[in-house]
Amino acid sequence: MWRKKPVRFLRVFTPFALLFVGLVILNFRIENAAFVQQLLVEDTPEVTKQPTEELNGTPIPVNDHQTPVATAIANKVEPSPVPIEPTLTWKPTLIPGEVALLIGPPSESRFSVSSPLTFYWYQAQQIREDQVFALVIVGEDFEELVGLVSEPNLGSGYQVHILPEDLGFSAGEYYWQVRLLQQDGDVLMGDSEQRTINILEAR
Known about the structure:
Immunoglobulin-like, 1 helix, six-stranded mixed β-sheet, alpha+beta
């Protein structure tokens, strides 16, 4: 009888002993893991936080009743200064003697408004292909372009024929002049001398 009691005791208390041993082992493992984690945290180097740089300068006061205006533009590109070229104003570059040599009619000539009138001149120098002679008659308050000639039409000279009454001229004193023009843009290169003519009433 007394031999059976130790066997019963072992059967009853063995499960409790095993459970206790298991709890002890589990607790030891939990504490060991916590200790290792603490060591890892302590060994991690601290990240030094750079202090935020402060901008020096006097702050710009903002009116409570005014919308704030941005004082800087991201990626702003300053325009490079570009010199502005002045607008060219064309002026005659030739003196009268370098433009044309007037032949006729002579100064102070008189012609009837119903009579044909012919003007003659020679070029003072060789003109280019893009240049042209313009015959102009100027009155008291107007001027009239009466002919354009780009090449000689009287031997080596130039001529233009008009009938004054067909162009609306009335009796009066006028002067005529030859001008050298650059055809591209009608640029005036120079004027010849002026000659006076008198147009009379038809008889």
